[in-house]
Amino acid sequence: MPRETLDRQIHQLQDEVLLLGSMVEQALLNAVDTLKRRDISAAQKIFANDIAINEKRYALENALIIIIATQQPMARDLRLLASVLETIIELERIGDYAKGIAKVVIRLGDSTLPMPMREFSQMAEQAASMLHRALSAFINEDAAKAREIVLEDDQVDELYNKAYRAIVTTMIANPEIIDDANLLVWVAHNLERAADRVTNICERTVYIATGELFELDTDDSEETAY
């Protein structure tokens, strides 16, 4: 009976992780769409939704601690639970990046500042897609799929570089808009970091499956042990 109880609680926890992931994924996409439409009202709603994301993260953390305290999981189960804790922290931080983009929307107001919207949208879509599939791999403990997803981070980095160059070019041509243009650099940074957080989740998937912690480095083919 104890084993059945633990299995049931872990599955419930995993379902809630997927729900949190869905909330974060949508927040990221909504934030960039809000920037595209310069919708301040929608940006303010993202702030409100971030409160729900934070509450969900802390509720999951509390549930996880209760499982550890009452079920006394050992070995692989404990490794899984530790990885769940790390994953919900990563998800909450991605939610913060979405909130940061919403903050930029509010600060820009009705500014007509040109922006690399195509690159922003592609970065958001790529990061959200990576997140969705990374969480599926995490739940299924699919290390091979996790390793594949990490390789896609290079695509996001390339889009970041394009966006950054476009923003700098705009700054050079129009020095008077440097302050506002710097806000766009933060948008690009937040989207690039969101993809990096997905990489961290993938590392936890590999850890669950293999018992080894590795930094999945997308700059080369080597993996560096912690």
Automatic annotation (TrEMBL):
NCBIfam families the record matches = phoU_full (TIGR02135)
- Residues passing through the membrane, by range: none
Pfam families according to UniProt: PhoU
Taxonomic source organism = Anaerolinea thermolimosa
| Gene Ontology CC terms, in alphabetical order | cytoplasm
Show where the PhoU domain sits.
Answer: 19-105, 121-205
Q: How does it assemble?
A: Homodimer.
Which InterPro entries would you find in this protein's record?
PhoU, PhoU-like_sf, PhoU_dom
Question: What biological-process GO terms show up in the record?
Answer: intracellular phosphate ion homeostasis; negative regulation of phosphate metabolic process; phosphate ion transport
Keywords, in A-Z order? Cytoplasm, Phosphate transport, Transport
**Family named by the database record:** Belongs to the PhoU family.
Kindly provide the name given to this protein in its UniProt entry. Answer: Phosphate-specific transport system accessory protein PhoU
Q: Which PANTHER family match?
A: PHOSPHATE-SPECIFIC TRANSPORT SYSTEM ACCESSORY PROTEIN PHOU (PTHR42930)
> What job does the chain carry out?
Plays a role in the regulation of phosphate uptake.
Subcellular location per UniProt equals:
Cytoplasm
